Q: What sequence folds into this?
């Protein structure tokens, strides 16, 4: 089998610069965690000139070149990008294999259709050049030979015959390590003073086997151009998804469209490589604040034409209003027209799966896209950090029997279950205005009829009206004379309220001269504090930008019930954190 | 008025569980108006002595206590009411600790119940499991002295715990008592407490979540605040005073008896000591004991008897006698050398009467402090002495002193940085930036690739400052032993040390001093091992049997060598600073060495004693004395007070101080707060001198020069003891450099220099050094007789002239040992030698493998070290042959048989590769110096060699390159840095001025190969290069 090895030197850096052209020419390092240290994996040419090298720590690099641009290196992302690139080259080759993080092997069996191996290789290199990538291509019969010559040879394009070692001979031993024997595996050869593949190839096989076992034989065979390893075609990912990080957050359509074009070109290239067309896709705008805004797009007619697709997306974006600059773009093909279908197994219930999808879709449509989530408890003292909302994941598409099997196992083990939680009731009553940016800038209390009420406000009003009704005191007025308020009592058991607000809200409190809370203003009314228990003191997060110091009280308010109130140690204001039912 | 005693309180001696020093807790308790405070660190009394001292200063009651870990119940605080209770407390802690590996503890409730007499128990937390039967039984054992603790720290589960405590107290019929479960002395310390929690759990503060306390309330609170917290049950606060008044036992009540020597019938310790001293005097003075010595001995024995220390001296005598009987070199040092009794008992080697040393520096009636006798033993054989002490006195009566290892700069930065979520490389660079700094500023951070604007960096720096000085773990003191007459575990808590067969008391030497507990210091000294080994080698090769006493004294050739600054490897005078001082001070007699050793110390340097002394010694300044009395004191140091004893004597003679006052002056002088403490003494000294007719200027000058003693300095007796070893080591270097070098290599690691510098120095003295060889080497170095010595030739020098160093006349060569080869175990080397001795030299690599059965990786290390060259011609062939050997499994039929006989054709390594491999495997190369390989490059740069530098003219601007072997930036050098830069011809001294330090910081602090240019400064034989440009020497290609 004939193979073409493509080597894209410093591919992760090439990709980064393509996506963010402003980085071109700058000293850049890509780094990743290595046993707790951030180590440099790739260094741009300009950074090399300034003395930066792979293997050094990021701090060391920053110490040498303070202006160095630091970006994380993610092998998985680079592999995905190579797969994406391979898919785009499938027009020239029926299959490819990823050689992460800097190369690809392509099946060159059909190169005669492109005018021969040399011309085929040239087409590949020029296709990549059009896409903005520098690459070297070597066509050979063995994966090792092709890869080693592409990586360590000097010709941009070469074609070599089968089992030839003449061209391999001058290559360094390092060629044996990457992806073959492993890092450091050639140390025994080096200790003998051997430095090239040809020198290893020249040693007697028997002697090598006697000394290094199968590793020695394997190495010698590779050095002689004998490689039996098989080409394994890359399985294509189920979802076609592309993402691009913008150079800087875009506030206008033009820079967005530039990135979008690159994205859609890649996407359509992949679709064409798969011989598929998009039916439904989602464009996601990643905002500067890490919020994401999804724009679903269902196509009336499936297509893989980038021009048409780009036009459709552009129209949708033109109508859109976003509140913040956009830092990244993602496009996901939700549905493509080519459906491979599937063979049903005994126990599968595709109808049930479909119904579940319908139910979930209806829930999401009715309550909004973010209302379905799982609440995961967190071991944190700050009440609002006591749990986090994680996206609710419906069962993966597949066989229900598999899914139920997993669930059974979880129950048997007694593991914690995630629950489907509807978010709405946990919001603070709207009458309690949200935490102001600055205490003095608190918004005025809402008055009935003064402004349009939100749904949340209406719900809380209903709730309070209900409470008032239950208490038989629909309209409480402050009494003329002062009311005796119980002193702070610590002996009362302070249970946490069942309803904890995600965001504490300001409570207007009248504090007497003796420092005791006597009256609160709630829903436009001044209400008497009947009892007060506490405090429970919570402090922490001093290491974070927003430390907290709070004294919590259970406050029984006349006509309302018990609220969980805290006094903030920083601004001195009172806030409501929850309600006791 | 409400009174309150805090009964549950953890200090930082709970090791990462409390964030305040014991003294801070006590000080805060005093300022909050507490009536008493207890320290209840887990299973120990580690910080109690410090708290006791601080409490005494405040007049505050300190309650001894601990929190015991029960293996079958919740933790329990216990407090001794009386001496019985204290003995039980120590026994419980010791049992708990000794029954577990270091750092762990645990007791059964039955064990606690057995030792409940004299103790009050408090259950600080009820635990989640509720009262069990065992708890009832435990409470029953403490009937009337068992309390249930209740605390309110404003935490979410406060009230649940209060209710549980009330229920438990009712069930156990035990009274409730309030406490605050104190972990910090002040709320401000809570961030450090959180960081410590994160460190303890190996996580970050951000991820620690509910592992952290919910607030900062576990702190020292005053009576009013506690009364407010427990306003619903005020009796629980008042009840703390009930416990405080019952616990009146304090450390002041400890009765300590030193172990008594096994006495002959009819003699008490005093008589037996006098008998031993009498015997010793006869051997010290065979020609008759001088009257002055006899008078001194009588005076000392009276004082020793009056202070009840005869047992201590006898114990030391016994230990030294044992060591000598086993041929272990030993010598007393420190202030003990001031004692004629110690000299007579052969504990020390310096005659204090002849030297005119001041006994009061060692022991005085006014001070009533225990004597401190430090004895050095060969470090390789010190363990034999330690085990003898355990054997003689029993483990129940002897234990080693512990050392409280505290967080230091780098470790603190690393731990805090990790806890605050900095990445490991950031933490690493931050810590490294502390190399030469005590403080980190924006510049250092910038160089480390960090920024002070980052909150985590700021917090790391701030919290690490707080963490520095906090105890991290317990270690074993270098040699301190506590020996008691009564069982030690009833006097002090004892636990296992990290080393096998070692037990330690929980207190450090300062704590023991506070408690007036005697300790003996059995220290290890590497140079004694070297001298002992050297004597052995000399006897093997020449038949000459030497001892410390038989080494010829006052040999001019030895002083000639030292005057040339040729002292690498010698004791105490080998450092760069000493090498520079030797040609200037020009020692010609033993007492010059005493001064030489003492003068290059921070004390004399800061006290500005060095230059005046040198001027007077060189005759540049007249030596005058205001009186004959003063002349008697200062004559030997040419009128400059260099030793603490001289300050004491001057105070007594010139200013009329009593012995006690003089000693108090010495203590003030050596205190860190000397400036403050010396104020009252200054006026007294000056006025005392003036009233005795001395010139006021003289008095002022004298007193001001004393200030240097606040820095580190040697007492005269200590310096004299060291000078003896320094002289012997110098004599050995001068006359037996091969044996001396071999002994130094075998005693590594020790001293200032690495093996390659020691070997190069030996070769410069004409010693032939031979490489490691499997057919000749042993685990330790050996000497091989040769016909003719091959003098070391200065490379790269067309006309080297006469050798700058005296050449050896020994007819022996030094064969390097297997111990130098990295990756070879001692057992393997001995296995190899045994196989060679049994079957003769190895004939091939296969023969070596089959007969020694060493693992392949060790044989590979030997091949790389060139030790197999004799079997396979060169290293690559050896590696190739080695790799052809069959399976190395011990039971394999083909073990070690060559599986292929073909020989590859491998070229010999290049000289660069050989030198590199030599350094990688052996740490030195006999073939070439690394800098020699760069000589052509250095020549292109116009660089001189170190040898050329000695011949260059002063003021000349030159360039020199080489390998940095020593870097120093002493605090007393006013910001100057010093590099010792070695090349193939010798060592050059680089001096970097403070203004250039930051500019060349990287090269000064971290670069191995440097090239520097600057002007030559010559002072006699001392040549320095004052650097104005320094850079890394990057090899071409």
A:
């Amino acid at each position: 089998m004939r193979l073409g090895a493509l080597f894209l030197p410093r591919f992760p850096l090439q990709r980064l610069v393509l996506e963010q052209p402003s980085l071109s020419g700058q000293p850049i390092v890509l780094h990743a965690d290595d046993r707790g240290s951030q180590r440099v994996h790739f260094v741009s040419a300009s950074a090399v000139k300034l003395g930066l090298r792979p293997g050094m720590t990021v701090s060391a690099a920053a110490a040498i070149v303070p202006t160095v641009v630091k970006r994380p290196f993610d092998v998985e992302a680079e592999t995905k990008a190579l797969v994406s690139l391979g898919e785009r080259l499938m027009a020239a080759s029926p299959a490819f294999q990823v050689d992460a993080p800097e190369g690809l092997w392509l099946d060159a069996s059909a190169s005669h259709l492109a005018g021969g191996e040399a011309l085929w290789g040239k087409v590949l290199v020029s296709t990549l050049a059009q896409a903005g990538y520098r690459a070297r291509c070597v066509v050979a019969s063995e994966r090792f030979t092709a890869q080693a010559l592409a990586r360590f040879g000097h010709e941009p394009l070469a074609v070599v015959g089968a089992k030839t070692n003449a061209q391999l001979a001058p290559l360094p031993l390092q060629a044996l390590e990457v992806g073959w024997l492993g890092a450091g595996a050639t140390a025994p050869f080096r200790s003998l003073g051997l430095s090239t593949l040809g020198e290893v190839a020249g040693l007697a096989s028997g002697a090598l086997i006697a000394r290094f076992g199968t590793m020695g034989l394997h190495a010698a065979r590779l050095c002689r151009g004998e490689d039996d390893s098989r080409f394994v075609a890359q399985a294509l990912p189920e979802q076609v998804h592309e993402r691009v990080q913008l150079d800087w957050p875009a506030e206008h359509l033009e820079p967005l469209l530039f990135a979008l074009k690159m994205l859609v070109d890649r996407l359509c290239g992949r679709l064409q490589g798969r011989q598929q067309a998009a039916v439904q896709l989602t464009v996601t705008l990643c905002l500067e604040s890490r919020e994401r805004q999804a724009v679903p797009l269902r196509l009336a007619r499936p297509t893989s034409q980038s021009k048409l697709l780009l036009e459709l997306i552009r129209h949708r974006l033109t109508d859109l209003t976003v509140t913040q600059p956009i830092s990244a773009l993602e496009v996901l093909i939700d549905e493509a027209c080519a459906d491979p279908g599937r063979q049903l197994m005994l126990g599968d219930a595709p109808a049930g799966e479909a119904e579940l999808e319908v139910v979930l879709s209806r829930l999401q449509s009715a309550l909004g896209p973010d209302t379905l989530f799982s609440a995961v408890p967190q071991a944190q003292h700050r009440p609002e950090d006591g749990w986090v909302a994680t996206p609710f994941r419906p069962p993966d598409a597949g066989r229900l029997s598999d899914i139920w099997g997993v669930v059974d196992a979880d129950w048997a083990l007694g593991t914690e279950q995630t629950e489907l939680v509807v978010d709405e009731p946990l919001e603070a009553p709207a009458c309690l205005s949200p935490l102001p940016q600055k205490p003095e800038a608190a918004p005025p209390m809402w008055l009935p009829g003064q402004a349009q009420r939100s749904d949340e406000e209406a719900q809380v009003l209903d709730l309070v009206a209900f409470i008032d009704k239950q208490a038989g005191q629909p309209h409480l007025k402050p009494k003329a004379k002062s009311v005796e308020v119980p002193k702070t009592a610590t002996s009362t058991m302070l249970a946490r309220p069942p309803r904890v607000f995600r965001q504490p809200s300001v409570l207007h409190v009248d504090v007497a001269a003796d420092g005791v809370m006597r009256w609160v203003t709630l829903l436009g009314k001044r209400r008497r504090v009947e009892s007060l228990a506490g405090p429970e003191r919570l402090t922490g997060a001093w290491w974070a930008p927003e430390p907290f110091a709070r004294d919590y009280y259970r406050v029984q308010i006349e006509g309302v019930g018990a609220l969980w109130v805290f006094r903030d140690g920083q601004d001195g204001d009172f806030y409501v954190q929850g309600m006791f039912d | 008025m409400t009174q309150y005693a805090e009964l549950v309180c953890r200090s930082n001696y709970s090791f990462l569980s409390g964030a305040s020093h014991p003294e801070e807790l006590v000080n805060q308790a005093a300022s909050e108006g507490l009536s008493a405070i207890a320290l209840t660190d887990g299973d120990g009394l580690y910080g109690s002595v410090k708290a006791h001292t601080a409490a005494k200063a405040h007049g505050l009651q300190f309650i001894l206590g601990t929190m015991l870990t029960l293996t079958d119940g919740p933790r329990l605080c216990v407090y001794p009411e009386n001496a019985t209770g204290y003995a039980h407390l120590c026994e419980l802690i010791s049992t708990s600790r000794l029954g577990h590996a270091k750092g762990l503890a645990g007791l059964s409730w039955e064990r606690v119940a057995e030792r409940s007499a004299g103790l009050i128990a408090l259950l600080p937390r009820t635990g989640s499991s509720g009262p069990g039967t065992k708890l009832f039984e435990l409470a029953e054992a403490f009937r009337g002295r068992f309390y249930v603790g209740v605390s309110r720290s404003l935490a979410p589960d406060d009230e649940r715990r209060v209710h549980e405590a009330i229920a438990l107290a009712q069930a156990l019929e035990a009274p409730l008592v309030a406490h605050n479960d104190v972990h910090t002395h002040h709320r401000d310390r809570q961030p450090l407490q959180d960081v410590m929690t994160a460190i303890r759990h190996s996580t970050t503060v951000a991820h620690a979540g509910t592992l952290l306390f919910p607030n900062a309330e576990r702190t020292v609170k005053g009576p009013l605040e506690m009364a407010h917290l427990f306003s619903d049950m005020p009796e629980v606060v008042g009840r703390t005073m009930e416990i405080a008044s019952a616990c009146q036992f304090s450390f002041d009540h400890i009765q300590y008896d030193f172990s008594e020597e096994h006495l002959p019938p009819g003699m008490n310790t005093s008589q037996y000591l006098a008998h031993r001293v009498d015997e010793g005097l006869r051997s010290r003075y065979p020609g008759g004991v001088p009257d002055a010595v006899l008078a001194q001995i009588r005076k000392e024995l009276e004082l020793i008897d009056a202070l009840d220390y005869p047992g201590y001296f006898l114990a030391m005598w016994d230990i030294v006698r044992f060591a000598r009987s086993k041929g272990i070199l030993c010598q007393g040092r420190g202030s003990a050398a001031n004692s004629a009794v110690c000299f007579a008992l052969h504990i020390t080697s310096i005659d204090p009467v002849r030297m005119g040393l001041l006994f009061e520096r060692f022991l005085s009636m006014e001070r009533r402090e225990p004597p401190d006798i430090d004895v050095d033993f060969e470090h390789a054989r010190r363990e034999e002495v330690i085990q003898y002490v355990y054997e003689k006195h029993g483990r129940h009566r002897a234990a080693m002193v512990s050392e409280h290892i505290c967080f230091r700069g780098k470790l603190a930065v690393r731990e805090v940085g990790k806890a605050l979520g900095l990445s490991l490389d950031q933490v690493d660079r931050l810590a490294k930036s502390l190399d030469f700094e005590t403080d980190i500023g924006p510049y250092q951070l910038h160089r480390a690739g960090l920024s002070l604007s980052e909150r985590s960096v700021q917090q790391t720096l701030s919290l690490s400052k707080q963490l520095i000085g906090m105890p991290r773990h317990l270690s074993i003191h270098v040699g301190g032993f506590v020996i008691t007459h009564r069982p030690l575990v009833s006097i002090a808590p004892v636990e296992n040390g990290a080393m096998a067969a070692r037990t330690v008391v929980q207190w450090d030497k300062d704590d023991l001093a506070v408690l007036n507990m005697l300790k003996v210091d059995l220290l290890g000294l590497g140079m004694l091992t070297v001298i002992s080994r050297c004597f052995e080698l000399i006897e093997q090769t020449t038949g000459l049997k030497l001892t410390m006493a038989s080494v010829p004294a006052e040999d001019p050739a030895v002083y000639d060598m030292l005057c040339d600054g040729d002292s690498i490897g010698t004791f105490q005078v080998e450092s760069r600073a000493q090498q520079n001082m030797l040609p200037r001070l020009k020692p010609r007699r033993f007492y010059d060495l005493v001064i030489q050793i003492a003068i290059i110390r921070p004390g004399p340097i800061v006290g500005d004693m060095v230059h005046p002394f040198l001027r007077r010694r060189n005759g540049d300044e007249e030596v005058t004395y205001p009186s004959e009395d003063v002349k008697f004191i200062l004559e030997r140091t040419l009128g400059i007070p260099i030793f603490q004893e001289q300050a004491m004597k001057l105070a007594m003679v010139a200013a009329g101080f009593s012995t006690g006052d003089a000693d108090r002056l010495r203590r003030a002088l050596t205190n860190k707060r000397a400036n403050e403490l010396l104020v009252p003494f200054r006026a007294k000294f000056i006025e005392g001198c003036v009233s005795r007719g001395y010139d006021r200027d003289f008095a002022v000058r004298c007193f001001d020069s004393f200030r240097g003693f606040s820095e580190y300095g040697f007492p005269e007796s200590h310096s004299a003891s060291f000078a003896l070893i320094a002289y012997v080591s110098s004599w050995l270097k001068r006359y037996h450099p091969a044996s001396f070098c071999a002994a130094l290599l075998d005693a590594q690691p020790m001293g200032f220099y690495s093996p390659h510098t020691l070997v190069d120095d030996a070769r410069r003295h004409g010693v032939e050094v031979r490489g490691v060889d499997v057919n000749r080497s042993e685990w330790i170095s050996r000497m091989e007789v040769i016909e003719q010595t091959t003098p070391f030739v200065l490379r790269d020098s067309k006309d080297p002239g006469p050798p700058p160093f005296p050449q050896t006349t020994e007819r022996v060569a030094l064969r390097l040992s297997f111990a130098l080869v990295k990756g070879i175990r001692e057992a393997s080397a001995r296995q190899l030698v045994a196989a060679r001795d049994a079957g003769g030299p190895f004939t091939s690599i296969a023969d070596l493998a089959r007969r020694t059965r060493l693992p392949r990786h060790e044989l590979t290390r030997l091949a790389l070290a060139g030790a197999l060259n004799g079997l396979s011609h060169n290293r690559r062939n050896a590696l190739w042959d080695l790799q052809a050997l069959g399976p190395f499994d011990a039971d394999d039929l083909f073990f070690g048989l060559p599986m292929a006989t073909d020989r590859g054709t491998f070229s010999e390594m290049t000289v660069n590769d050989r030198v590199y491999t030599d350094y990688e495997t052996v740490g030195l190369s006999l073939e070439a110096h690394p800098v020699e390989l760069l000589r052509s490059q250095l020549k292109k740069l116009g660089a001189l060699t170190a040898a050329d530098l000695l011949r260059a003219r002063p003021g000349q601007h030159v360039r020199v390159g080489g390998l940095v072997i020593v870097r120093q930036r002493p605090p007393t050098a006013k910001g100057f840095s010093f590099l010792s830069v070695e090349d193939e011809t010798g060592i050059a001294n680089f001096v970097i001025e403070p203004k250039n330090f930051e500019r060349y910081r990287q090269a000064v602090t971290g670069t191995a190969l440097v090239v520097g240019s600057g002007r030559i400064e010559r002072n006699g034989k001392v040549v320095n290069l004052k650097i104005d440009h320094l850079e890394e020497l990057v090899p071409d290609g």
Confidence is low (pLDDT under 50) at residues 394-493 of chain A. Residues 209 and 216 of chain A are 6 Å apart (CA to CA). The first strand of chain A starts at residue 3 and ends at 7.
